[in-house]
Each structure stands twice: as C-alpha cells, then as structure tokens.
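Form 7-S
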Amino acid sequence: MKATNRPPATYTCPMHPEVRQETPGTCPKCGMALVPEERNGHEHGGVPQDRMSGGGHLEMTRQMREKWLWTNFTVMALGAWLATSPFSFGYARGAMLWNDLLSGILLVAFAALALFPKYDFFGRWGVAFVGVWLQFAPLIFWAPSPAGYLNDTWVGALAIALSILVPMMPGMAHHMAMMKPGPVIPPGWSYNPSSWHQRSPMIALALVGWFISRYLAAVQLGYIPAAWEPFFGPGTHNVLHSEVSQMWPISDAGLGAAAYTFEMLMGWMGAKTRWRTMPWMVLFFFILVVPLGLVHIALVILQPVAVGYWCTLCLAAAFLMLCMIPFAVDEVIAMGQFMLASVRQGKPFWRTFWVGDTMEGGGPDERTPRYGAPLMNMAPPMAWGVTPTWPLVVSAVLGLWLMFAPAVFGSEETMADSDHLVGPLVFTVAVISTAEVVRAGRFVNILLGLWIAAAPWLLSGATLFSTANSALVGAALVVLSFPRGKIHEQYGGWDKYVV
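Output:
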C-alpha cells in the first residue's frame, strides 16, 4: 500500500490562534497546551468540538488558571491581612471593625473557591465585588482612622486587579477560544484606539487625579485639618465644607477617588482588541470617564456661584478629568461601529456586547511602535486622534479669561455669575473638541459666544468694560468655532461626521 504524503500537523493555541507551530507544546502567551489545528475534521470557530463540551471548558479553565493560581493565594493573604487590620491599626470598634472582618473572610472564601475550575467564575467575580465594596465602605462608615480608609481602598484595588485584571477575566477563556481571529485596527481606521499607547495617558491622568482626590478626602473625613491652597485663601476649606459638598451622604472627594481608582483599573483591562472583544468594558469605561466626568466638572463650575469661592485642587482634579475625555471617545466610536456591523449581520446584540466577536476588514497594527522602539517614537501614538488646533486653543484661553473677567472689570450679580459659569463651559467644549471624532462639538461654542455677547444687555451687574469685553469675546468665539482644523487620522464610516 503506497504511503500518503501528508503535511505535518500544525498546533495552535485555542486562545491565541496566531500562535502556530509544528510540534506540541504550550502557548508562550498564556501557557495553555497547544492543540492540533484539525482534529477529526470537526471544528467550530477554529476550536475542536471536544474542547467546547462541558469537560473541555473545565479543562480549558484549568490550563488557563494554572499559571495564575498565585493570585488566588495572594488574595487569601490580603483577606487575612484585612480581617486582622482593625486590631493592628487601632480601629477595632464600630462598623469598620465588622466590615473589615467580614470582608476579609469573604476574600479568603471566594479566592479559595476559585481554586476549583468549576467555581472559578463565581469565586473570582466574588473577589472583585468585595473589592468594589471596599472602595466605598470607608466612605459609607466615615472611617475614623486614616489607616482604615487607606487599608480598605488599597486591599480592594488589589483584590480587583488580582481577580479580573492580572489573569484573564472569568469566563472569557471559553469565548476567546471560540472566536475566530480578527482585525486589531478597526476597518477604515488609521490606528488602533485600544492600544496601550492610547490608554496610557488616561491611566496616568487617573493616577494623578486619585492622589489629589484622596488628599481632599482626608480633609473631609477629618484626618488632616486643612488642605493646601495657594491662590484663593479660605477657598478650599469653604468648598470642601460647603452645603454643596455636604448634600452628599459621603465624602464627595472620596467618591472622586473611588471613580479614579475604577478608571485606572478599567484602563488596564482587556487586550489591544477590546473595542471588539469587550464592548461592555469600553462602554462602562466611557460612562465612568465622560458622563461622570462632566458631572464632576459641573460641580466645580458651580463653586463660585453656589459657594462663592474657588478651590485650586478641585479645579486641578476637574481639569484632569476633562483631559481624559478626548482620549476616551475614539474607542467608543470604534466599538459602536463594530456593534452596528454585528447587528446588521444578524448576530445577537447582547451576546456580542457581553462576549465580543470578530469582523471582516481592518487589519494588523503595524503602525504602533513595539516595545524597545526609540523613546521619541513612543510619545506621538499616545495622542493619535487628539489634535489641539489653534482655534480650539484660543477658544480655551478665552474661556479661562471669562472666569477671571468679573474680578478684573468689576461686574457683579447675575452678570458675574454668567461669566463664572459660561467661561468654564467654553473651556470644556474646546478641550473635548480636540478629539477628532467629536470635532463637530466645537459648534456648541457658537451658541455660548452668542450668549456671552448678549448677556450684558439681559443681566444685571454689568459695567462698561465688562460689556465691551463680552462683545469681543462672544464675537471671537463665534468666528473661531467655524474652522475645523486639520484632521490627521481616519475613522472608517465615521469620517463623514468629522465636520
């Protein structure tokens, strides 16, 4: 019988199909055992059928988790640390005692449960939810000790990172294995909005914002007597203890610190294709950065009107939050395009939203510099899609000028309030419009410019000089809002909306 010349078998990773070799082994990216590319001629999405069964799913979870079991034991150690902390740091009384004791026990229990492949999903998500609770517990219970506040927030952040950030998120391995390879760059785009270069500015800004908010929270929680204020005298003290701040049942600065913590963690989550593999994560990150960020900015804008003072560090925290928005919107546009294309192909919306999928078109990311590239090549990709054109820069400066114009020209009453409110709004619109995908947002400043010019004739407290200033600033904003400025990148079907 004549021998048949058959090509050698090719072994691939179920989770990383791009890993291919002619000999058995393990994937260098995730440590999972490589499987034959063809097994009995039956495959589904590139994954053998026997690996999609219940037993195959558990085996896949076991292989994926083997190299990350140290995270479970680390979480168990953190749980033991948390449960004993009240007795070590001197706050062994009241609600914080029971909170840390019970939360520590839950961390140990959930982490131990996740040691078993069958319960990995529930165990690790249990750890993550306890970690989320620990970000708010010291604020809800008004932790009497700074050690309790820092201990809970740090342990909570580490628990989230070690359960769903450092290893792959629970339940994702099975879906990633069934997913066919797909593009890294969205179809029609000139860059990848989910690359690490694109996310790094947001992570860095969130870290600085977290430091500022934690410091201000220490004042509101009574750990330190006062905060540093270089420009506005008692402004910071009055803002932090104002009726606006106290209308929240918890420290609003502490709430801001929790938001920055989640932004940092969510900035790290997911691979460079998360615009199509984790649509839900992209949307939640957008909600955390944009709507909540705008609320934060609005509260700061209200300071001179509702409180009568400015707060330097509050302005700095709001500015950092504002700067994050232009870096976040492009990834949401890419995700929205992907979801729309998926629905048009008849794929189930919610399944795609929660577990992701692949799509036609796009391609590999050959433009983003790789690790080891010259340092001067690493910075420009961080700002792809964000272009501060000169009309937007001038508009932002005019917005800042309006914030101080009442003090310079002596305007009072509702006229002063108008400048204090509209100035930051002009600045906010200009900064957000530096994102090329929402460049059309600059037209909002036309409406604001018209109001600025008309305000002295409609409001009380204007002076001759403030009236002239308003007319000039308003007219300038209207004119500056028409030029689009240069657009450097491409966004597929969204290009027609970049006007």
